[in-house]
Design a protein that fits this description.
two-stranded antiparallel sheet, 22 helices, 1% strand, 497 residues
Length: 497
């Protein structure tokens, strides 16, 4: 294991987080808030420690998938612990567990909150809370690859470990340029959204924080009612952009390159919009007469469908009060999620499609044993290794969801609340049903349950395996054996002398 390279990456993560904290410091200066001093303290310590770790570049810069997964999991854990310190030290969130929960929810773009009164937070804390969504949306390691030249040809292992979806590919030959293109698209869409929100007479501060939460598909709002009190214009703008940020960013690159032929063959994107349209139609039909009029029903339904399938978690109505069929559709959307290569969470539409195609192929094999049928996606044949990876992912997904539900139910949570809250945190959505519905929060959950949800949020955002590899004993067995061997050798030398 290349320990020095892992430490080097972690050092850069600390430096980047210290630099990111300069922005809430500026917000604190603008609004004359004394709590901004805690961002100064944490940022200074993070920058100093990161600089100390990275002052010397490792001689061996080659790392494999194991190192990539471990570096990614540790990066997100360290980033969350450091990021929660301003909340905790300022006592605006007095409990360390609650501060960590809120920060992990921010970076993983989950949007679950322990706060019953978000408006009570200071401006700098509210800004940092929303900004964590934007940082985590595209991924901090993708940002690292965009700004830092890392040689050795192993960068792809970092991108695979952090990026959501069954497969990750380069847009251009160089990994650094691919990461830069992704962030340019990400920033461009965010800027357009901010401008449109400003046109809706939102303040600059609220436009920025809302745009960060929408772009990262996170869902942290600065109002206690989320976006329910906003104008229909604002709600429609946010609806459109939630859905746009749930699209595979490769599609936007193809649009910029005017590659319409390849764009037409992006099955996942077309199915994504098809699922959204079908869900809106079903829910509108099922909730007919529930809303004031058809236009209001269309706006609320479109908003909530877009919010749930993209795993954003914004709310304009309490969908937990909808009829059973509508709530089932919302539960289905929770599991499906957005497109691979987007800022959205969930299983991803591509995995769902490939699983359906794989099941149909298996069914046809019983009817026509001699027929060999290849599974195609985006006009290309999907190799069997990718299908195997998806099957393994689903197995791990089901096992972890069942285990997490079991643990929170042991802790006293009812089945509907427990299962839906696990789905909400694991798929990085935010709200669940019943006790943890859209009109509620996670503040009443026990400390034990909160740590279960923290694990689920991290595992869901990192596609399960980076976190499992970090916790898997064989990953560290070789390293421990080498340390024990070195100690024995050193003792042998001492006794001989």
């Amino acid at each position: 294991m290349n320990k020095s390279m892992i430490a080097y990456i972690l050092g850069w993560i600390l430096k980047l987080e210290g630099l990111f904290m300069l922005i809430p410091i500026l917000v604190a200066v603008i609004y004359r808030e004394h709590n901004g001093i805690w961002f100064v303290v944490v940022a200074a310590c993070s920058l100093a420690l990161g600089t100390l770790i990275t002052h010397r570049k490792p001689e061996n810069n080659i790392f494999y998938m194991r190192e990539g997964c471990i570096a990614t999991a540790l990066s997100w854990m360290i980033m969350s612990v450091v990021g929660c310190l301003p909340f905790f030290l300022s006592r605006e969130i007095p409990s360390f567990t609650d501060a960590l929960f809120e920060t992990v929810s921010g970076f993983t773009t989950t949007g679950s909150t322990i706060l019953s009164d978000a408006e009570a937070l200071s401006y700098c804390m509210l800004f940092w809370r929303g900004f964590t969504h934007w940082i985590g949306g595209m991924g901090v390691l993708v940002f690292l690859l965009a700004v830092i030249q890392m040689t050795g040809g192993s960068n792809m292992n970092l991108l695979r470990a952090e990026s959501p979806g069954p497969s990750v590919g380069k847009l251009v030959p160089r990994m650094m340029h691919t990461a830069r293109i992704l962030y340019v698209i990400y920033m461009g869409l965010t800027v357009i959204l901010v401008v449109l929100l400003l046109c809706g007479k939102m303040s600059v501060f609220e436009s920025l924080t809302t745009a960060f939460s929408t772009a990262g598909t996170g869902g942290f709002g600065i109002r206690n009612d989320s976006l329910a009190s906003c104008s229909p214009y604002i709600q429609w703008v946010v609806t459109v952009f939630m859905i746009l940020f749930g699209v595979n960013f490769n599609a936007y690159y193809l649009i910029l390159m005017c590659n319409w032929k390849q764009l037409r063959h992006m099955d996942e994107v077309w199915w994504y919009f098809g699922i959204i349209g079908a869900a809106i139609l079903i829910i509108m039909t099922n909730t007919y007469g529930w809303a004031g009029n058809i236009l209001e029903n269309l706006r609320n339904t479109s908003f909530q469908v877009g919010s749930i399938i993209t795993t954003t978690g914004f709310m304009t109505v309490d969908f937990d009060q909808w009829p059973s069929l509508s709530r089932y559709v919302m539960l289905f959307l929770m599991m499906i999620g957005a497109c691979a290569g987007s800022t959205g969470g969930g299983m991803k539409v591509s995995r769902f499609l490939l699983s359906v195609k794989s099941a149909l192929r298996e069914l046809n094999s019983y009817l026509f044993p001699k027929r060999i049928k290849k599974i195609k996606m985006d006009g290309k044949t999907v190799d069997e290794e990718a299908i195997r990876g998806i099957n393994v992912y689903f197995t791990a997904y089901i096992l972890l969801v069942m285990l997490s539900t079991f643990l929170v139910c042991i802790d006293g949570t009812d089945l509907v609340s427990g299962f839906s809250s696990v789905l909400g945190t694991f798929n990085n959505i935010g709200p669940g049903l019943a006790k943890y519905g859209p009109a509620c929060n996670f503040g009443d959950a026990s400390t034990f349950s909160k740590y279960v949800y923290i694990f689920d949020m991290l595992a869901g955002r990192l596609e399960i395996f980076p976190v499992l590899i970090l916790l898997y004993p064989p990953s560290w067995r070789g390293l421990l054996k080498r340390r024990i061997k070195r100690k024995k050798n050193s003792r042998g030398r001492v006794s001989v002398s």
